[in-house]
Amino acid sequence: MRIALALEYDGRQFCGWQSQPGRCGVQDAVESAVAEIAGESIGITAAGRTDTGVHASYQVAHFDLQVDRPITAWVRGVNTYLPEGVAVIWAREVPEDFHARFSVEERGYRYVLLNHATRPGLMSGMVGWHHRPLDESRMQEAALKLMGRHDFSAFRAAECQARSPEKEMRMARVLRKGDYLVFDFRADGFLHHMVRNIVGCLVHVGAGNAGPEWIVKLLERKDRTLAAPTFMPDGLYLSYIRYPVRFDLPDSGRETWPCA
Asked: What is the pTM of this model?
């Protein structure tokens, strides 16, 4: 039997999704909780990895097991054993050819940035922050330059292990909600630190340090050293994962606050 789970979590208390020797990954917490219900050790595969401090409002994972449990056990039961800050949203039995990672058709991330003179207090660790005024119209114009299939080497971390830097950006938008700027990106895949590097460059444009056409030059030059520094992880959320309709999963994502 193969079970798919959708999860949400606060990345501040974990060292990223992936299991670590110190058992500090979200994967470690979820595998431990699932094992309590299954009565056996379980290995879990997720749609995508998130780094330390990065959140998920919608992560999907799957696991295989031999025992039979009611589907509610994988939601209410697993949540009983999960630590605060991580929860199962839904669970479904899926066919054997479903794979949380390799069956994905599209992924999406949201970055929430507080654009205010003073740093966040209540939302500390949950949103990014830039203290000087940013021009969201210039940032949106720059974001549109990312649309389509490109070599995103200029936005790729040095330790990225992806086979190819080419990705197809299908959504790139910047919206203002009061003092907050909301960045949404959807693509057929993302490179390591790609979204945080893009946000850093868009903030650079929004602050008036470069024009929107600078993004085009970065794409053409394919040189990470020419781009802005990697932005803080605090406001980044894995928020959207789309699978083929034949798997009949409940939804594709949960856009986190502030909703656009």
From this structure: 0.95
